[in-house]
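User: Just a sanity check before I run the rest of the batch. Below are the structure tokens for the first item. I only need the designed sequence back.
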């Protein structure tokens, strides 16, 4: 069964009203399912990670949580890298802070499907990655939304070089006619998370 979640409608309404002003610009003005977010990821990677020192092996981006959930506005872009000593690191860049870099944190990688040691992970060459391929994957996933549900936002997108299903994405959807629920004077949007993976051939699979 798909993961079921709720978000207060009041919080969403407040965000929509504020988006006419400064909040929209702080969020970066990009949607998680747009080609612009991938271009921003390439820009950040080029500006912040010297390929002679860092090997990027994964990138992901997501919308915000809480009041920012279901807006489809990009909240952050995160990179996973391997340094020359084979140590793994991660760093996030926040849209709300004008794409300011967060702390560079050492991390541990779960073993991928293709390689036993992170040192063996190939670099993710974002400059040579086809943005049209990413757009197609997202649109293919939308086309697989079960009947009776409709697209609300792309919650998360990630890609790496070490798994056989190197791309994973989560779409947030609502059930038609049952989008909201009221309790104790509060109204919430009820939404479901659909998780997809994509293999090397570009085949998109919806997981229940």
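Assistant: Here's the designed sequence for the first item:
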């Amino acid at each position: 069964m798909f993961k079921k979640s709720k978000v207060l409608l009041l919080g969403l309404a407040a965000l929509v009203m504020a988006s006419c002003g400064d909040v929209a610009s702080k969020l970066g003005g990009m949607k998680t399912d747009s080609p612009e977010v991938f271009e921003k990821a390439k820009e950040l990677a080029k500006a912040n990670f010297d390929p002679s020192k860092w090997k990027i092996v994964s990138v992901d981006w997501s919308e915000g949580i809480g009041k920012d959930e279901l807006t489809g506005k990009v909240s952050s872009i995160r990179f996973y890298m391997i340094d020359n000593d084979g140590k793994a690191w991660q760093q996030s860049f926040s849209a709300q802070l004008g794409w300011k870099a967060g702390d560079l944190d050492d991390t541990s990688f779960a073993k991928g499907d293709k390689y036993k040691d992170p040192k063996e992970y190939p670099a993710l060459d974002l400059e040579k990655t086809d943005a049209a391929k990413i757009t197609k994957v997202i649109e293919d996933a939308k086309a697989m939304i079960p009947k009776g549900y409709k697209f609300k936002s792309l919650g998360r997108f990630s890609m790496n070089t070490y798994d056989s299903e190197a791309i994973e994405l989560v779409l947030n959807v609502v059930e038609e006619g049952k989008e909201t629920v009221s309790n104790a004077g509060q109204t919430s949007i009820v939404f479901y998370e659909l998780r997809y993976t994509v293999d090397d051939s570009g085949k998109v699979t919806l997981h229940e």
